[in-house]
Amino acid sequence: MTLSEKNFTFVMHCGEMGSRWGFNRTIGQMCGLLIITKNPMTANEIADSLSISRGNVSMGIKELQSWQLIKVQHIPGDRKEYYAPAGDIWDMANRVFEERKKREIDPTLSLLRDNLLDEASNEEEIYAQKQMGEIHNLLETVTKWSSELQRLTPEQLNKLMKLGSGIGKVIDLKDKIFKKE
Amino acid sequence: MTLSEKNFTFVMHCGEMGSRWGFNRTIGQMCGLLIITKNPMTANEIADSLSISRGNVSMGIKELQSWQLIKVQHIPGDRKEYYAPAGDIWDMANRVFEERKKREIDPTLSLLRDNLLDEASNEEEIYAQKQMGEIHNLLETVTKWSSELQRLTPEQLNKLMKLGSGIGKVIDLKDKIFKKE
DNA sequence: ATTAACTTTCAGTAATTTCAGAAACTAAAT
DNA sequence: ATTTAGTTTCTGAAATTACTGAAAGTTAAT
Fold first, then answer.
1. In a domain? residue A123
2. Number of folded domains that form chain A
3. Is A100 a member of any domain?
C-alpha cells in the first residue's frame, strides 16, 4: 500500500519537523504516518511506506513508545504486532508537551533548587543567585500552571481556550467579586 | 575573570540543555553566562570564560541576537562591544517561546491549511484529512491562546498564574453569569 | 592613508547523530 | 527440537552539525 501524494507530503513534512518536535526525522515520519493511516500498521508496512530499514523502524517504535505516543495491537490469528496512535490528537499533544517539560524544564529546576539552598559566598555569586532565583520562579510557575491545565475537564479546558481575549475580563471580574468578600 | 565553581556548574548545565531549548551547547552556555554575570561582557571575555574560539563566540552572538535574547552596549571611550541579556528573565522566556512557536508550529499550520483546501479524493485521503483537521484545530487553538496571553498586562498575567486551581471555578462562574443574560 | 583594535566570515576538521543491514534473539507452529 | 515468522540489538558507514583558527573585513584614531 503506497501513500497518496498528498498524504506523502504530509508525512515528509512531519519528518522535517521531527527534530524540532524533540525526536528525529524518521520518528517524525513514523508518527505522522500512523496518525493519518486509518488502520494499525505492522513494522514492515511502516518500513516499506517510508523506505527505511526494518531496524530503524524497530528503534523508532521503541522511542515512540517511550513517549507514549503509540500502542501495540494484535489481530487474532495473526502473530504480527500492529501499531496505532495512542489516543486522539489532543492526547498525543499533551504527551509530547509533558515529555518535553520533563526533558527541558525539570532538570534545570532541580539544579536550581540545589543551588539556591547554598549560601552565596561573594558579590558575584549573590547576583548569580538572584538571577537563578528568577529563573526558578518562572519555571515553577510554568510547571504549576501546566499541571493545573491538565487537571481541568476537557469541557472546562475547551471553554478556557475559546475564551480568548475574554480572559482578561474574566480575571478582572473575579477580582471584583472576591474583593467584596 | 574566572567563574566560581557554582556559577560554572550552572553555565555548563545551560550548555547541556542548550540543544533541548532550541539552540546548541555553546549558545546555551553563552546565554547562561550572560544571565548570571552582572556586568556586560565582551566577546573575548566570553570566549575566555568558556574556553571556546573567538569565531564561535561571534557566531553565537549572531544567533542569540536573532532570538533577540541579547543586546549590545557600548562604554564611552571603549571600542569594544559589550553584550548583555535583552530584558529580564520573563522577557527572555517569552522570546524563546515565540521563536519556537515560529519554528515548530507555524510551518505545520501553513501546510495543513493548504492541504485542507483541497478536496480529498478517496477513502484514505478522507480519513487523513480528518486527522489533519484535528491537528490544525489544536495548533490554531494553541496559537490563538498564546497570543492572548501575550496581550495581557503583566499584572493580569500574574493574577492568572497565581489563580492556579481556582481557574476551574472562575470558568464555571463566568459561565453562570453569562448564561443569565 | 596607515595603523591598531576589534569583529565577522569561512574552509576545513572534529564530534555527534542517524541509519542500514547483518546478526542475535524470541516464541509459535509443526 | 526444528522451522518459521517475527522482533531487537548492534556495528560501522554516511550525513549532519558544531567548532577552530586563520584570513578578510570594519571602523576609529592618528
1. yes
2. 2
3. no
Q: Do B167 and A144 touch (CB under 8 A)?
A: no
How long is the CA A82 to C1' D24 vector, in angstroms? 59
Q: Nearest residue on chain A to B130, judged by CA atoms? A: A36
Closest approach of chain B CAs to the CA of A125, in angstroms? 7
Is residue B181 pLDDT above 70, yes or no? no
Q: B134-150 in b/e burial notation, b at 16+ Cβ within 10 A?
A: bbbebbebbeebeebee
Q: pLDDT tens across A13-58, in order?
A: 999 999 888 888 999 999 999 999 999 999 999 999 999 999 999 9
Partners of B7 on chain A (C-beta within 8 Å) are 124-125, 128
DSSP, collapsed to helix, strand or coil, labels residue B59 as helix
Q: What is the pLDDT of residues B110-169, one digit of tens each?
A: 999 999 999 998 999 999 999 999 999 999 989 988 888 888 877 787 787 777 777 777
Residue A70 shares a structural domain with residue A113: no
Quote the domain boundaries for residue B74: 5-86
Q: What average pLDDT does chain B have? A: 91
In a domain, A99, yes or no: no
Q: Is the CB of A54 under 7 A from strand D?
A: yes
Per-residue pLDDT tens over the stretch B44-57 = 999 999 999 999 99
Task: Answer whether residue B100 is part of any domain.
Answer: no
Residue among B108, B130, B136, B157 with most chain A CBs within 10 A, to mutate: B108
